[in-house]
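Q: A small favour: would you put together sequence and structure tokens for a protein?
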Amino acid sequence: MENGSSSSSFVPSTPLLKDELDIVIPTIRNLDFLEMWRPFFQHYHLIIVQDGDPSKIIRVPDGFDYELYNRNDINRILGSKASCISFKDSACRCFGYMISKKKYIFTIDDDCFVAKDPSGKEINALEQHIKNLLSPSTPFFFNTLYDPYREGADFVRGYPFSLREGVPTAVSHGLWLNIPDYDAPTQLVKPLERNTRYVDAVLTVPKGTLFPMCGMNLAFDREVIGPAMYFGLMGDGQPIGRYDDMWAGWCMKVICDHLGLGVKTGLPYIWHSKASNPFVNLKKEYKGIYWQEELIPFFQTVTLPKECTTVQKCYLELSKQVKAKLGKVDDYFNKLTDAMVTWIEAWDELNPSVNAGTAAARKPNGTAK
């Protein structure tokens, strides 16, 4: 694990949640993309999760405060429980969620750049995510002016006054201009399609409704929903890939619905710069494309008992039901449910509810730059 930091001469007004939010970035390459994000990211702490060869040196531009963890660090910190963290897949990002000490997480892929709104102004994606998280959600009744808490909007006529306080927002799911987040078959059919539609809207995903959660432009309240944001077993040694964020999204949404928490989608946009290879993607996705026809009905009908009053209890109960119902679909799901339990055990070890004495155990090796 490597620590890095250096001073920067430009210091704007204090950014929102400066000391309460970590930016988590999974990568296998130098992080030159951070230069474009410098005006928006430079005052926040970064957690970089290096995938692949741990001996490879990842260059981080000067002026950023960061920690960098590679596979050796993950193995050292988690020991035998490191088996729950994917290898050679961006699902490894969830280790950053676990090791963070902050209340909020924003995660972004290294092929995502600053987008511009229709007026040509650069979009501060992080600031919009924070605004989404700090305002309530309305999952129990749909507002036809979308987010009623945004400037210039409100609850429309007929909206129940008893529901206008809303509920805490656990997750803010952002979108992408340029390269859409398509599956491999759609990529193959529409290889030149680009998303140029900027929709100036934020919606609460209604209770009982699932959605495809993309991990490349995503923020959440770690203290409220963090243990549910497990990106599963993907990549090296696994029969499936590119379903890490989908799996986390389905589990998270079921738990949010049970606990009365909200999920928003829409703004902010980022510029997704690079289309991944559809043939490689198809190889990773093809089992998931079949399996999801059974996974979705499971998540649409699963219920959690009222005794599940914490995210951890909900997640462990969900793992039992996954094993019972989906284990027969493929043995992979038996392995996945074991990893779900291991994930919660590792989360609780690194994040005891009241115990500051673990800080030394969590502190990574390495030297400050």
Observations:
- Confidence is low (pLDDT under 50) at residues 6-12, 354-369.
